[in-house]
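Honest question from a wet-lab person: if I give you the sequences of every part of a complex, can you actually get the arrangement of the whole thing, not just the pieces? Trying it with mine:
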Amino acid sequence: MTQPDPSGHFGPYGGRFVPETLVPALDELTAAWQEARRDPAFSEELTRLLTRFAGRPTPLGDALRMGTEAGGCRVMLKREDLCHTGAHKINNTLGQVLLARRMGKRRIIAETGAGQHGVATATAAALFGMPCDVYMGALDVERQALNVFRMQLLGARVVPVQSGSRTLKDAMNEAIRDWVTQVRDTHYIIGSVAGPHPYPAMVRDFQAIIGDEARAQVLGLAGRLPDAVVACVGGGSNAMGIFSAFLADGSVRLVAVEAAGHGLDTGRHGAALARGRPGVLHGSRSYLLQDDHGQIVEAHSISAGLDYPGVGPELSWLKDEGRIELRQATDDEALDALQYLARTEGIIPALETAHAVAAARDLARELGPKGLLLVNVSGRGDKDVDHVRRALAERVAKKKRAKR
Amino acid sequence: MSASPDRIQAAFSAAAKRGGSVLVTYVMGGDPDLATSREMALACAAGGADILEIGMPFSDPIADGKTIQAAGERALRAGTTVASCLALAAEVRRRTPAAIALMGYVNPVMAYGEERFLDGCAASGVDAVILPDLPPEEAVSFRAAAVERGVKVVFLLAPTSTPARIAAACDAATGFVYFVSVAGVTGARTSLPADLGAKVAAVRKRSRVPVVVGFGVGTPAQARAVGRIADGVVVGSAIVQRIAEGGARKARAERVRRFVASLSRSLRR
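Yes, you can. This is the full assembly:
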């Protein structure tokens, strides 16, 4: 796997742009992580948790009806939605809670957008009996009431954040402020491949199990590597998790699907890679949605998990290197894809994942009957059903109004 | 090298001569509008501040507590940019000999262009730049470009800083070193850590340049206590809070001037 330089740079991206107070904690975390990677006892314990608690390995399924309908392409689904807590996020939180214990930290904090990372963090903290505070934008607290309650059931305290746009980026600001204040006894579990070094590389390593399993499973079931791997990208943890195993396979196209929201040209989207410019947010340099004056612009997506103005630095670098292809799906396309996968395959994906499904349908048609496509089903849609029901009702009402 | 006078060094020499420490004050540029913030910075100077920090607002200020966050939001609503903060600094420079330091986050500076920003600093009479999210490791090219133009780059140290990091920041520092008194964000606090004196002494011992202490200092009594152990004291949120209390521009300026004068008196030994 590609490693950043010692100070955490992927080409011109990444690094550590944080207040001085945090730098020693990041050094401590980097050292603990490097040490843990070489310690067989650590990987043994993590493997035990991932198999006996989180339900790994996740299956690789065939999307038979989707493939047939697309003209015969073989479409395979990596079922991260079947992980405990309903998404890939648990792979990372279990690993980081183990690291926190190793460092002697007694308290866990996290930020969350849709609530999936918050739930996965609260779960891991509950498993080890550690107190856990989850920062969540006040707007997301309203939008994701069910996940707020799940976190509370798991014993976590959910702290609504009222500053700025009251969404994920503001929750991350507040989590960083908490960490600066209580850094000696607190570990901050970042949920994506974003933030200051070592988070982008460390979270990717914890998520790399997705790609490691999927690559072996595809080779076993199909006897060859896929033509393309598709994943949605908000911060990019599920994408880097599945892409990392294929980075060295030059023949495998890696397709990152960003949220086009209301449309790329409306200014209301979450496509930092496609439409952003390099800048610094939350401790690292990467593509960012920002205005001409360097102020961060609010992202928009129907999916709270993709509603983020930044993206992981390694993805920025892979974009510049030409190793990943960028595609987008709008809110409407994601809604359609969610219903499509539910009806053709019996899987209700998360709204985030639905963006990848939308692009996968197009790709499957393009690849044709000889094609082999791997899709990361990063999470399940249970958390979204209420939101989707309202969005679909709104869409019907809009169409009716247009007819009149 | 620029031929402009070294106002930072002059401020510390003057304080040493009068037997006290330097007073550094903070005002957010453009809070609640550019003209008011200019008068507030000048009121600080009139009250006896030696170094005037002018904040440049950013949408995501991770090192700031609620008071300065709110000031930044007001400034952004008023349309404040890096360019307008440079213009503000130039106006302040025309009306006071006090040293000026621009303080902000790295992204707006990058978007404006690092060299263009430093050119603007030199042209506007800005003496120093403080970017809390630009640690020495990431500041190599920025620091070199600043030194070329005679602009100081101030690095921060914290209670958590290791001896190796203290050495690195002290070696990279120009102008002065900014020691953050508490692990935390900006904002006035009721008490300061008991081991502050020992921590500051360790940094002063290592540093070629003066060491100022900020974050959490909000009263004349706290300023006096910190002034005894450091070369300078920074007061930010307590001033920003007095500006936010509202009123006519003149009334606010008088409130700020009086408060700063009380801080300044407390620093004279």
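Two things worth pointing out. Strands of chain B lie at 22-28, 51-55, 99-103, 128-130, 152-154, 156-157, 177-180, 211-214, 232-235. The radius of gyration of chain B is 17 Å.
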